[in-house]
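Appendix C reproduces, verbatim, an entry submitted by the partner laboratory led by Prof. M.T., so that reviewers can inspect both the input and the predicted structure.
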Amino acid sequence: MNKKWSALLMTMVMILVAFVGCSSENGDSAGPEIGIVLPTRDEPRWVQDETRFKEALEGTDYSVEILFSQGSSATELQNVESLLTKGIEVLIICPHDGDAAAAAAEAAKKEGVTVISYDRLITGTDAVDYYVTFDSVAVGEAQGQYLVDQASGTENPLYLYAGAASDNNAFLFFEGAWNVLQPKIADGTFVIKNSEEAIALQEKAVLTREEMGKILNQVTTNWDFNEAKNKAESHLTAVGAADKGDVFILAPNDGTARSIADTFASDSDVSSYVITGQDAEKASIQYIIDGIQSMTVFKDVRSLVTDSIGMALAVLDGQSPSTTGSYNNGVKDVAAKQTEVIVVNQGNVKSALIDSGYYEASEFTGLE
């Protein structure tokens, strides 16, 4: 009797083990199908994206794991390798450094994983399958146009700042801004005050990447609040009162815009300033409401996340994702899906961000 029960128990255990193994193979207890790597937790923008990604996958049959690289290309590669060991089928990655991220993309491609470059383009490799982005040149053009629209007369002091030279988007943002600003620099509407390289090239309507690189190396913030503050302080110290007054400032994103705005506002020789931004971060929306920051370029990450997750799900379902164009990354033309951008200032902050459901009115003070 005991032997029979023992045999029966052993049979049941074997069936259970087989069932568990089958379940694992079918994905019920397997790792995530989608791996996402974002640049850093230290900027509100990317924490927002993390939340949106999780929301976008609610109600689907697929799971996701999201990791942050904390501004390190080495950590970025480790994150990708970790996700690959968990069996991901699609990698969505926003590179810290476009060139350095090629190694991560190639590691994923070697494992047969589809690589989607998110917001920033991975450069110098053919291992990128798709690119989901806002029109970065259009972002820069919107920033430049805002400064032009607020300017009158001639010899308006212009201070230029840019993102990190390791980020391909920083070049695209600057390219767009230069497209609009350069004619107004050439005709004397603006006078550049903080970049000898930009002054040397101010008669040139179209800059090469190398030429833009020379300017970026002088005015880069590296997307860092403190570096932006230090550069702004240094520039204001280097010029006289005549180079201040009513100034115009090209700031690349909201985080750096707040630092630069605070610095210029504290200089008694600065009578007024107009300053750009992008990302519609909560802190900057409050600055806009309070009149401290002039504008931001709203890039609705809900749309960007929806587009990238839509691409990933299409791949997982064996379909070809829809694209709207392509971007050359130095090695290949990467099929891309672009998302529109919106200029936000005091006049439309409520309709663009509150009425659209992006933020709650209760998150701000002084909102009419």
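Confidence is low (pLDDT under 50) at residues 15-29. Additional entries are available on request from the coordinating office.
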